């Protein structure tokens, strides 16, 4: 029987680059899977139903909550987002290592309900860097930048509850920043695969063969 896969939750403040990192990780390491969440927000141009998200109505989302279909769910930026239990169960049963790229509330829920889950927090290198990124977008008012930085402070306060913290450097400081952060996430996954618990069957067989 295939070994069960492991679950990894990745989160971090908006603008820290977690989506880019996860995208690169999946391109470079097809042995890692990403869970497709349900959301009530409208698709953005180019987003495909069933690929980026399962786009559902508020009614459908509420029905899924009532059915107990979610592994975790949260209300983020005026919309609902949730991970289906069926996705998690199927992928892990197939032996796939699965990433949930979800918000901080969702990550804390998942880590609280399953101690074997690995939490990875992606951090911007500094307040200045994050502020620059928000200003570069040119879409935020001063007030909105202040509100967002306040939210980031709350999110960063939760980073202490994760297992790993990855600093995503700015590309103007480190041109390979994205590659480095991506490989650091993969290093966490690779290290978990090498844990004794996953090697026990192999060691038992080797030990038995050595006694024969
Ligand atoms: P966006 O609308 O930009 O795709 O995502 C907004 C936020 O929702 C991001 O922080 C993203 O990580 C989070 N998110 C996406 N899917 C899920 C999910 O299934 N559960 C939770 N809790 N958050 C999610």
Describe this structure in words.
- This protein has helices spanning 18-28, 58-67, 85-93, 104-113, 127-137, 142-158, 177-193, 196-211, and strands at residues 7-11, 32-34, 38-39, 54-55, 70-76, 79-84, 97-101, 118-123, 164-167.
- The chain is of the alpha/beta class and 212 residues long.
- The protein has a domain at 7-35 and 98-211: P-loop containing nucleotide triphosphate hydrolases (Rossmann fold, 3-Layer(aba) Sandwich), CATH 3.40.50.
- The strands form 2 sheets. A 5-stranded parallel sheet has the order 2-7-1-8-9, sandwiched between helices.
- A hairpin with a 2-residue loop joins β5 and β6.
- α1 crosses α7.
- The longest helix is centred in the C-terminal third of the chain and has 17 residues, at 142-158.
- The chain starts with 6 loop residues before the first strand and ends with a helix.
- The mean pLDDT is 93.
- It binds guanosine-5'-monophosphate.
- The site of guanosine-5'-monophosphate has 14 residues, from β5, β6 and α4.
